[in-house]
Amino acid sequence: MTVKTPVTKNICVDPDDAPELTDEWFEKADLMEGAKVVRRGRPAGRTKALQTVRFDLDVLAAFKATGKGWQTRMNDALREWLKEHPLKQV
Fold first, then answer.
1. Per-10-residue mean pLDDT for the chain, 90 residues long?
2. Which of 3, 4, 6, 31 is the most buried (most CB within 10 A)?
3. Which domain holds residue 65?
């Protein structure tokens, strides 16, 4: 015999009641991970660009194996390399 589970209350939300997601709204928003505040509001400036880059699979796998934050660590490793090996303009 199966046990009945308690009935969950259906909460209808009207999409028109949602706030408009403007830049001002995001500037005031807090970024949360569970109950922990990760960041307050939007960062001051955008300093990164979205690019398509190809890496060898073993290099990519090595960084991904380090867990969450691997992209930041890869960026830091490239920045460190550039300090030691300045590139010349072509």
1. 66 74 79 78 69 95 94 94 90
2. 31
3. 20-44+52-84
